[in-house]
């Protein structure tokens, strides 16, 4: 009897081990659980706290073949529509059968901003959803959502791309960011990723947070956890132009080729314009803004970028470019509040 019981135990143990070997564990993000070869939709549930609960849509696309895990995120600012529509395209068209590894797609982090058409912030707590990482569970909705994205997306991925664009009031030209961390291996990978992404203007950033507990941005939340990450922006002023959407979709696909998630050769951008300093021009008065430059215009130091009038048409402020460079974005609406940005100008330099 004793031996019989031991045999049964052994049989159960062996069959459990075999089962574990032949049935690969599912890859789960929020409520989306994907076996190899599956594309599964779900939500990252953000529990209620001192304010309302929310849920963030997520799709997990899992190839049959092994490979890295890439996270694609957009909509931290829910009215940067081009980036959101680009990831909707990825969700609809990227198939599990064509990839090696796993792609996590989070197309719309800031659902209330999208639904209510509120730029820059989450209207629930008036916080930017790309400034409060790694987040905390006892904070406001933005902080709890950031905590859940850190746990469910950043910690489960190997690489990350955060997509943005010009918001409702921002007339922006496409560009990406390469954040140099000082870690040579990480920097080589992120540089290859940003070149593979393919945008022809790249901002070099060297002052991003190094502390994983105070990472602020999604990209830094990944990089401070040893996961190479880049940020790219395209689209502007509430528009969804096909060229801009395609630029972001093609960028994600080419990074997937670089990471060997998709077959084929990654073709990096040839001779991009490197921007080594970004100057911001802000208004010193409230009033009505008249821009004198367009997104993508090259200006010299001293070029007048715009002026502000009072509500009776009298010019009360004029602003000039502090240095020569390319207008990355210019305020796209007449509303101008003291302290807010009129334009940002990227100074051309060398990346090293
Ligand atoms: Zn943004």
Rounded to the nearest angstrom, the radius of gyration is 23 Å
Largest sheet, strands/sense/barrel: 13 strands, mixed
Count of distinct strands? 19
List the ions, cofactors and other small molecules found in this model: zinc ion
The CATH topology of the largest domain, please?
A: Aminopeptidase
**Helicity, as a percent range:** 25-40%
CATH superfamily grouping of the largest domain: Zn peptidases
- Mean pLDDT value: 94
Low-confidence stretches: none
- Just name the CATH architecture of the largest domain: 3-Layer(aba) Sandwich
Total individual domains = 2
Supply the number of helical segments. Answer: 7
CATH class categorisation of the largest domain: Alpha Beta
Which class best fits the helix and strand makeup? alpha+beta
Distance N to C terminus: 75 Å
Brief characterization of the structure:
The chain is of the alpha+beta class and 352 residues long.
